[in-house]
Design a protein that fits this description.
Strand content: 5-15%
CATH superfamily: Winged helix-like DNA-binding domain superfamily/Winged helix DNA-binding domain
Largest sheet: 4 strands, antiparallel
Strand order of the largest sheet: 1-4-2-3
Order of helices and strands: HEHHEEE
């Protein structure tokens, strides 16, 4: 992974955890919230960050920091189809 890709990956992971920290303990966020938070522009360029945000979420799932959900229930990467939400990992 190139250094610029690593920096972006870290920024996205940090944005996910930061956005979750600012929400209620049980709240979830949409990947688009993260993409918009990180994107530095006024146009629709944040959309190009959607897949990198999803990848960042799955990395955080792997280390037990977050869960990815659909319909309010945790899903694995291989199960996820369509829109997802991200929330803090639950015990």
């Amino acid at each position: 992974m190139a250094e610029t890709d690593r920096r972006l990956a870290r920024r996205l992971e940090t944005a996910i955890t930061s956005l979750l920290e600012r929400r209620a303990e049980t709240a979830s966020i949409c990947p688009s919230d993260v993409a918009r938070d990180v994107y530095q522009g006024d146009d629709q360029g944040w959309r190009a960050l959607m897949e990198p945000v999803r990848q960042a979420a799955w990395r955080l799932v792997a280390v037990g920091e977050v869960e990815v959900t659909q319909g309010g229930r945790p899903v694995t990467e291989s199960e996820a189809r369509g829109p997802i939400r991200i929330r803090r990992a639950r015990p």
